[in-house]
Amino acid sequence: MWIIKIGGSLQDSGYLRSWLDAMVMHGAGRLVVVPGGGRFADAVRAAQRRFGFDDSEAHRRAVLAMEEYATCLHEAVPALVPAASLEAIHTVLNNGGVPLWLPAAMVTGNPGVPASWDVTSDSLALWLAQQLAAQGLVLVKSVAVNDLRPLDELAGEKILDRYFPDLFRQQPVNLAFFNRVEHAQLGPLLDYGVPRRIVSEA
Length: 202
Known about the structure:
Blueprint: E1 2-6, H1 16-26, E2 31-35, H2 38-51, H3 55-76, E3 80-83, H4 86-94, E4 98-101, H5 104-107, H6 121-131, E5 136-141, H7 151-156, H8 164-170, E6 174-179, H9 186-192
Parallel strand pairs: 1-2, 1-5, 3-4, 5-6
């Protein structure tokens, strides 16, 4: 089983549909999709600036923003099956489907997940991979990322969120960064399981 996080930045790109098709084609029974926040998370940031609610409330709303994006993905490709719990994810996988994670039920109020902007969908995807003991995690970004760069550097440049490197060190997983044009590489990764970053390289 692999986890794939599809970045919200792909929402308005011409590559999103290719990624969705690749996930359905290659991921049946072995891939879990994690949505980014996209424009919905941007709306939460704007609302926080305007109304001044705290980061904990912003985090709760940002998690719901991921679910809004998930709804859009499901409407675009109904073969992606919404799943809100570990049990539901396993059920979809065992039935040969591709689960689309709805994170709110598992994340909101969970003391193991810090409620701040330091934790975005990237860290939540990593957290889910850890919970499921997944073979690895794919992060799809709108830009190319050097897979061998230190995670702390990527977090410093806001390519990853601040929490990601620490969470990775707690329980490393195989990790691959794909840019938005690399959807054709998803099948070979799932077929052969060769990550770009092995777990010993934090």
